[in-house]
Every structure is written in C-alpha cells, then in structure tokens.
Amino acid sequence: MQIPKIIIAIDGYSSTGKSTLAKMVAREFSLLYLDSGALYRGVTLFAQENGLIDADSNIDVPALTEAMKTLDLHFGFTEEGSRTFIGERCIEKEIRGMKVSSQVSPISAVAEVRAFVDERLHEFGKSGGIVMDGRDIGSTVFPQAEIKIFLTASEEVRAQRRYDEMVMKGGNPDMEAVRKNLRERDYIDSHREVSPLRRAADAFVLDNSGMTMGEELAWVRGLIQGKLGLLD
Ligand code: DC
Fold first, then answer.
1. Would the CB of 39 count as within 6 Å of ligand 1?
2. Which of 58, 82, 113, 115 places its Cα 20 to 30 Å from the Cα of 74?
C-alpha cells in the first residue's frame, strides 16, 4: 500500500518484538526501517572495547563523552536492510551478543550518550518515510510522529522469544539469565532520569502476547488506515 512519507514510532519493553514488527511494517508500506537501539548497542561496544566501562558497569563518563567526538557510528544500507557500522567495520553481530546486552542499559542512561544518539536519529527523521523502534521515539525523539505504537507482552512470552532467538543464532542460553537480563533492562530503562521508557500519551498500546505476525500487521494496517483516512 502506498502511503505518505510519515514517521511511525514503535516503542516498548525489551523483547516485545518491536524490530520484527517494525521491519514488517516498513516492508509493507515501503518505508525505511531504523533500529535506534542498535546505536546504543554500538556505543556500548565502543565503550567496552576502549575500557570506558568496567565489569561492574561503572562508566567513565567524561572520557566516553570525549571519545564519542570522534566515534563514527552509523547505519549502512544493504539489500538485506540496515546494518550498524563503526567506520568501515560492520558491528551488527557483536552488538547482538549477551556481553553488549548486559551493559547497554547503563550506557543508554547517560545523558551525553542519549544526546549523541538523538543527533543521529534526527538526521534520518528530516525526510520522513521511516519506521523507527526504541524506548523513547514517540515520547521524545519524534513527538511529531504520525503513528505511535507502544508494544507490550507478558514477561513469560518475552523471555521465551529472546531465548528462542538466541538458540536460533546458535547460542546456548540459560533461561534464568535471559529472564534476569530482561527484568534488569526493563527496570533501568524505565527508571533512568533522562528520557525513560514510557508510553507517549497519544500512543496506541498493542499487547501482542497471543498474536501472530499476520494479526499484528493487520492491526497496524487498520491503525494507519484509520489515522490517514486511507482505503485499501
Ligand atoms: O531495542 P534494543 O533491545 O536493541 O535496545 C537496547 C537498549 O538500548 C535498551 O535496553 C535501552 C536502550 N534504548 C534506549 O534507551 N532508547 C531507545 N530509543 C532505544 C534503545
């Protein structure tokens, strides 16, 4: 379906299927999909590799702020979709691992990191025509987004999805560790001082616990049609 160059913001807790839904919606409506979390993950990898965060997640904020001035973190676009890069190096695989996942929430709670990421996200928003997922896209990054969705699902369903995803990627995850990481990230993401995870007042809530992908897409299609007054 052809629609105008709008911004669709999809926010929600970890492992609610935001990126899966966002990619599907982007494909269906010929929009560009952008994963804001990938940039927070990229900064986390950069901090880890440069000794700017220790094993207890103590962050050297002044040094990280200084180092980010020369950090060339960006998306690259391929046939398969967008990939995350530091300079010429594709970091897509590293940023999805447990090591980055376990420290991305404390890194993304740093105001200077959020400013760094927001600046890059706003660049993409200028021309519209995007679907972006994250935690604060509808509330803070693009409050003017035409469509805002807040995705949620039960903890049980989310932990199982994350577990299955890791197994599919060849990992051997421990269910308790997966659950613990989800809970910790939810807590930090929604309690941090700067731009915490929260539903924008004008976001539509979708609990996708018992839904198929087809049902989710149909729900979004209905939302877009209703909002933009389009017919099939
Ligand atoms: O969506 P994700 O799991 O890849 O996101 C990784 C982390 O990045 C998440 O724990 C919180 C942070 N994040 C954020 O604070 N704001 C966003 N807009 C996107 C992600």
1. no
2. 58
Global pTM?
Answer: 0.91
| Residue 189 Cβ contacting ligand 1 at under 6 Å | yes
Q: What total of structural domains would you count in the chain? A: 1
Q: How far is CA 221 from CA 92, 207, 218, 230, in A?
A: 29, 16, 5, 10
Could you tell me the CATH number of the domain that includes residue 221?
3.40.50.300
In whole angstroms, what is the distance from residue 54 CA to residue 79 CA? 37
Q: Which is the closest atom of ligand 1 to the Cα of 185?
A: 10
**CA angle (3, 7, 11) in 5-degree steps:** 125
Tell me, yes or no, whether 230 lies in a domain: no
- What the block records as the tokens of 231 is 């017919």
Residue 150 Cα, ligand 1 centroid: separation in angstroms? Answer: 14
The response to whether residue 101 sits with its C-beta less than 6 Å from ligand 1 reads no
Reported as a single tens digit per residue, the pLDDT across 25-36 is 999 999 999 999
Which of 94, 189, 190, 198 best tests ligand 1's pocket when mutated (most atoms within 8 Å of CB)?
A: 189
The protein residue with its alpha carbon nearest to ligand 1, atom 9, reads: 105
Which H or E run contains 166?
helix 155-168
Range of the domain at 107: 7-225
